[in-house]
Amino acid sequence: MKKLQLSLISARYERIAPLLDGTTPVEGVDLVWTHSNPSETFWRQLRFGEFEVSEMSMSSLLIAKSRGHDMVAIPVFPSRRFMHMALYVHKDSAIEHAGELAGKRIGVGEYQQTAALWTRGTLEHDFGVSQYGVDWYMERSEELSHGGATGFTPPEGIRFHRIPKDKSLVSMLVDRELDTAMVLSAFHAERNVIDRSTHHRREGDADAVRPLFPDTMAEGRRYVEAHEFVPVNHCFVIRGDVHEKYPWLAFNLYAAFAKAKEHWLQQLPQAVPSDLFFGPQYLEQTRAVVGPDPFPYGIKDNAAMLETLIDYSFEQKLTPRKLELEEIFAPSTLDL
């Protein structure tokens, strides 16, 4: 029987690599994989729908679904981290605690992106910093943003600003035009056409800033004890017309992704990936904080996290109502 050939676009994560290289194939499917930075991936898929299967921003997914975009998610979450730990301040800043950000200028790559959504929720609920009591600065242009594809407009009551095209999150933070900014990836991520901070890397910039949360292990433990999960920022989606034509695809994809992750978990003691939350040297401490599987898939093991994400999206006026899980995920995956 001839296999279905499908295009898939995503970044390469060690836990999905066995699926991409064919070690754990998808039953009935040959995947044609395109490697892409997530910033570019989401913009391309939201605006053009080029791929049949795509990695997708969780926040943009909720917004897109609430506005009628035709895509179906599977509960495979290749990327999760403590988003608020990407906040940096100038090395000479007097700010030492997140609660001191009230009234300050905060820079984000994109206002609607998942990392910004989780960070606003954490600042508000964990540190008492109201989203309405700060000034938000966004780096991405409207043309190259995910929000430009979903029809984003700044929520009413938010003090929203766009960073000038000749500046970036990093340059404004170093030049003290911002009090804090989510710039962790700007110093390490591959260059992409969406994020100016991955291009404007001036010598000495990295030495001019420091993390707002210098003890990542302590803050990660605090967060997990308070919320009992590590926030997710990406999932995978199937384009709506493809799901309608091949309703069996969602389950087959989920099963293959799950097998790929099991293969990855078996390799962890010998080959620790570089993107574990606290660094590869802290495997045992990571397991002590988050359990033996740092990246759980499925609805059941992520229900609290997903409900919090949906609550934050509605609370921050990114979505007009709280979406139901049944609206977001493929029916065959809801009991997984």
Describe this structure as you would to a colleague.
33% of the residues lie in helices and 15% in strands. With 336 residues, the protein is of the alpha/beta class. The chain folds into two domains: 4-80 and 230-333, Periplasmic binding protein-like II (D-Maltodextrin-Binding Protein, domain 2), CATH 3.40.190; 83-226, 3-Layer(aba) Sandwich (D-Maltodextrin-Binding Protein, domain 2). Strands 8-7-6-9-5-10 form a six-stranded mixed beta sheet. The chain is globular, with a radius of gyration of 19 Å.
Which geometry do the CA atoms define?
A: globular
**What is the number of helical segments per DSSP (H or I, 4+ residues)?**
12
Average pLDDT metric: 92
CATH architecture of the largest domain: 3-Layer(aba) Sandwich
What is the gyration radius calculated from CA atoms? 19 Å
In N-to-C order, the SSE pattern is EHEHEHEEEHEHEHEEHEHHHHH
Query: What is the CATH superfamily of the largest domain?
Result: Periplasmic binding protein-like II
CATH topology value of the largest domain: D-Maltodextrin-Binding Protein, domain 2
Uncertain residue ranges: none
- Annotation, overall tally of beta strands: 11
**What structural category characterises the helix and strand content?**
alpha/beta
β content, as a range? Answer: 15-25%
CATH level 1 name of the largest domain: Alpha Beta
> How far is the first residue's CA from the last residue's CA?
28 Å
How much helical structure, as a percent, in the residues?
Answer: 25-40%
Q: The biggest beta sheet, please? A: 6 strands, mixed
Strand order of the largest sheet: 8-7-6-9-5-10
* Count of all domains: 2
